[in-house]
């Protein structure tokens, strides 16, 4: 909610700024709440690069951005998930031709309480914890005893069902044919997940790496049971060795042209990629930053 | 709407100030002012009805097509499986949420009824002078605390407290939300219950006193039975408040799709589901329409509760 209000305020500010300067190009940028902070940082930095272009950023979620792209009311849509085939078809039927650009990666960390002795988990273990009919409901099932956790009963923390994070985690951990268990605590925002897991010894949750705090533990994740585990970090997300890292997208209508092309090129340049790195996400390619 | 009235009022004032020079004109201005105020008051009076109808039409328009066409009502009302964004098999079942809302509201009433009735009895029957005025102001102040603040209290204070006190894995539970919601509903229930107690004519009390009844006997044997419809109305309005509350229950219940079997289970409320999901749902999608169907369902239930409360309160006025 806060980010939404903030982004509206920023968008309003950007509009105001455009109104003042004559003949400035306005790029409308909307979508994912995961990307909104980065998108704002880009927009602000780009103002100095090219003062003739103003980028108006607003959040609202991946779904909101994609809906705006389908309806043709936005120049660049941000999304933390790829557009579904249905959505692409709908966009085509309305005369839009969304083109996907990967602007960075986000590692989804599996969070545990600080006192939890478990340090690594495999995707198949996670699937039993999160998936429908999953067998794991106790920390004992994973061979662990969590201090301060009553009955060793897991408190499984998830996200609301239309978040891009939720959709990506489901695809990466449960696959296409399995749903989440009912009865997970569905938090409304990544920060809430981290807050709850931080305070609850029995809890397990997932969220973007950028939301991690120093009071929480992140599990090392094994892509397959016989492989070594990979700790979530910007570096392992960037080289795709971390198994639950998702690409972050920007969508344009058709191949970008003119100022929009320049803006996207700048985002993918070293300067732009260092900004996303600084915000806690992995850049789309190797960059050297100060 | 406001501008012409101000002008007219200013015109009237200046003319009166000038010593009523133009009698005829002044009367016209006063008449106009009168008419304008009349229209304004009329609009104010019917605005509530217009808004209610408008909201109902809006909710129905968004959800009705889906509710009568595609939706499987059997599944909707009897399945706990709420999976609107499933890739291969979306299901729309709200049974768990109905259970969640009902359990939280039920517990809230268990918390709120003793508090609010006690407070109402004290304010109406025992407190006098400054104590009474101070209490009334405080109760109204309590009603003005925003629900997000209550939710925050549930999340950050009650959650660790419940974990510590009852040694349970998580504190975002029916108990947490029920207490929060009970405290939220209590002020409104107190105000209405107090009105109901005051509506009992003084001659009842005087008659009882003349018969030698004590203060306690008067309150519990005479006033409370006489005011029982009004008190029931107060409770029902509290129930309505509980059903409709969103933010606090979203934060304090744990928001888990779960049919509770104890007060230490996390649950999810109908309202919280709409609040959490509507913002990021594509307009016009099945999920969107299903959320509006929940809206219709809530609207109907709240309407029935409020209507029942109103009829009951009206009952005492007549009798």
Question: Could you characterize the architecture of this molecule?
Answer:
The complex is a heterodimer of chains A (290) and B (319). Chain A is of the alpha/beta class and 290 residues long. Chain A folds into two domains: 2-104 and 248-283, D-Maltodextrin-Binding Protein, domain 2 (3-Layer(aba) Sandwich); 106-245, 3-Layer(aba) Sandwich (D-Maltodextrin-Binding Protein, domain 2), CATH 3.40.190.10. Helices cover 37% and strands 24% of the residues of chain A. In chain A, the strands form two sheets. In chain A, strands 1, 2, 3, 4, 6, 7, 8, 9, 11 and 12 form a ten-stranded mixed beta sheet that branches. In chain A, helix 6 links the parallel strand 6 (155-159) and strand 7. In chain A, helix 1 packs parallel to helix 2 and helix 3 packs parallel to helix 4 (85-93). The two termini of chain A are 33 Å apart. In chain B, 77% of the residues lie in helices and 1% in strands. The longest helix of chain B is centred in the N-terminal third of the chain and has 46 residues, at 23-68. Chains A and B meet through helix 3, helix 6, strand 7 and helix 7 of A and strand 1 and helix 6 of B.
Order of helices and strands of chain A: HEHEHEHEEHEHEHEEEHEHHE
The main β sheet of chain B shows up as: 2 strands, antiparallel
Q: How much is the radius of gyration of chain A in Å? A: 20 Å
Number of strands of chain B: 2
- Provide the structure class of chain B: mainly alpha
Gist?
The complex is a heterodimer of chains A (290) and B (319). Chain A has 290 residues and is an alpha/beta fold. Chain A is 37% helix and 24% strand.
